[in-house]
Fold each of these.
Amino acid sequence: EDQVTQSPEALRLQEGESSSLNCSYTVSGLRGLFWYRQDPGKGPEFLFTLYSAGEEKEKERLKATLTKKESFLHITAPKPEDSATYLCAVQAYGGSQGNLIFGKGTKLSVKP
Amino acid sequence: ETGVTQTPRHLVMGMTNKKSLKCEQHLGHNAMYWYKQSAKKPLELMFVYNFKEQTENNSVPSRFSPECPNSSHLFLHLHTLQPEDSALYLCASSLQETQYFGPGTRLLVL
């Protein structure tokens, strides 16, 4: 069964304290892995799509990496405005069209 | 407004009411989706439409009825809902793999 597990569930950081969020997945054949940011009461905001092991993408203080079993979202020198829930999702080859399997998310709090 | 829009943003309804949620995408995408997001649970895919044709129905109860009149508009018709249906309902659209989400409708069923 295709599955996505995110850890930790919650993470508290001081401003400037770098850290990483983990997304472990099991899927029959990975078509794509997606990272989203979600603020309270809002819809998920797209961050990155990764397609193959070894791929990396960056955006401001965020960097996403991918291996055959997991993805990391590295946050460098975070600021309070980076506080949000970060969602990971995978899409499998051969699965139903558009079927993203989401993890439960990691709630990040960055204190000034 | 650009991107994916949803109306209303908040909705309170009784179990005997009938209401509809609306989604509109301004991105030229050909696929649209409905998701349900409940507290402490992952996003759950409900319906998928591709070029106005429904291609996915993830065992959703019949009290939820989707409608897709064209590639830019998607509706979710609600009737005789239960309190456990209270959640954030999200619409998304895509052209290829990446899905873009709207702001959601926060639904409370009393």
Amino acid sequence: AQSVAQPEDQVNVAEGNPLTVKCTYSVSGNPYLFWYVQYPNRGLQFLLKYITGDNLVKGSYGFEAEFNKSQTSFHLKKPSALVSDSALYFCAVRDIRSGGYQKVTFGTGTKLQVIP
Amino acid sequence: GAGVSQSPRYKVAKRGQDVALRCDPISGHVSLFWYQQALGQGPEFLTYFQNEAQLDKSGLPSDRFFAERPEGSVSTLKIQRTQQEDSAVYLCASSTGAGVSYEQYFGPGTRLTVT
């Protein structure tokens, strides 16, 4: 079965500092990995995805993620955090059993708090 | 342009009542997904439609849950004889195509509380 783990329930970072939100995955076959962000009372918004190619993936709002096959990790990063980045972040993996469509399994989420 | 919309945004039901949750996907989107998000958890897959065809309903937790998309656009998730464990946010998402490269666009969700 495919799964992702987000080991931190909450991450606190000072505004202007770099941030990292951790995610590790377990898949059989090639991993298709995603990051989504959820703001209060709003739906999930897509940030970025890794399908193949470069290990460093750039996404929306200045976020990027580094795919590391040997460590089975896909950590989300941003060089300089903004207060407006405070939200709930979800890592997700595509279920390989889904055939041709994008059925994904989400992690439990990490709350990011950027402190002014 | 308009995104994915869901109605109602909030629903309170007494245990045993039936509820119907509506999803209006982005116009022209082929794929439609329903997810259930319990408090403090990530979304969990319920079911998937490609146009009007329900291709995967493996995530529906019981036969009390039923989803339809009769004309390949609007979808309704129906829960019969609601139970307290059904309390959650129900998310709908749509995408232009079926493959893994297509982004899913999520609606704001319907928060269902069963009392």
Amino acid sequence: QKEVEQNSGPLSVPEGAIASLNCTYSDRGSQSFFWYRQYSGKSPELIMFIYSNGDKEDGRFTAQLNKASQYVSLLIRDSQPSDSATYLCAVDTGGFKTIFGAGTRLFVKA
Amino acid sequence: DAGITQSPRYKITETGRQVTLMCHQTWSHSYMFWYRQDLGHGLRLIYYSAAADITDKGEVPDGYVVSRSKTENFPLTLESATRSQTSVYFCASSDSGSGYEQFFGPGTRLTVL
């Protein structure tokens, strides 16, 4: 059974701080990794994707991938109350099968 | 409307009834997916489709049926609803199957009494 594990949280950080969200996956053959944000009562929306080992930055968001450790993370710099949401880690295991983690709830305190 | 839509947005039904959830996308994406989201489980794939008339099972297909006669539509049918199928159902589409962003519909909240 291919799995994607996330700490359910909630992760609480003060406004302006760095939020660090982590994800581990079991399938070593996984090639593509995604972070989706889901506001309460809404549908998921993609915020970052990463394919290669290392860091990928987009504005206040940085995705980090370590395939050897089977570890993906998302850093949110200068966290804002509007970042409060559930963050879903998703891993593409090939064959049209994307496995989603259960999500980490982030709460940014003003 | 452009994008991906789902109907109904909310549905209450009784055990044993047949229910169909509709999904429509205007992007002409080849790939479409049905997920269910339950507390503690995240999104779980029910069925997916790579093109019209091509569908395949996902992680939790039992009790569900899909069809895709047209590229833009991907209905999901619960043949005989059970309480365990109470969930939020999301339809998604993608320009490609693997390794690409999926665009999600607004979801259907289904309650089976």
Amino acid sequence: KNEVEQSPQNLTAQEGEFITINCSYSVGISALHWLQQHPGGGIVSLFMLSSGKKKHGRLIATINIQEKHSSLHITASHPRDSAVYICAVWGASGSRLTFGEGTQLTVNP
Amino acid sequence: GAGVSQSPSNKVTEKGKDVELRCDPISGHTALYWYRQRLGQGLEFLIYFQGNSAPDKSGLPSDRFSAERTGESVSTLTIQRTQQEDSAVYLCASSLSVDTGELFFGEGSRLTVL
């Protein structure tokens, strides 16, 4: 079992739909990152969380430390949101960043 | 500079040759990270630096891989005696501090070993 598991692996949505991507982890962490990787390969950091909830535009990220779970929500999805979304956790021991396998999101017009 | 800069952007080399990949982080960022992404696969964490020190080198795939950082600035990832399985995009990122800072990624160095 991977230390960081994301679901779903693939997600296809229609423009305007509300989207949720989930991330579960099995280790104690000091921080969790949500990253976005576009088809060209560039990676952008969306959020860094250690507790609670953060919002940026149409994106919302939440984390539940007790349940070792985080969600990334996209409201009013748009085709330009099509990308791979990656969850990564920084272990509590502070030695490395562990990545989920990523969720491929496709938003159709 | 304004962002994380990596060079070269593309490198084609022959099996057995040594390669050096360079990363210039954002000025003032104490943490620097190296990752690898093979074609069609996820991100693989290689090593990180806090200042000029690398506390954990166990993510490096083999002893052919080494990395150093000087002046709390530029970092070099060196791959000796390259093998075809080393072909990947090597990504560098930096943050203000380890485990509490937003990550800023470079565009990557695409390495192809023939």
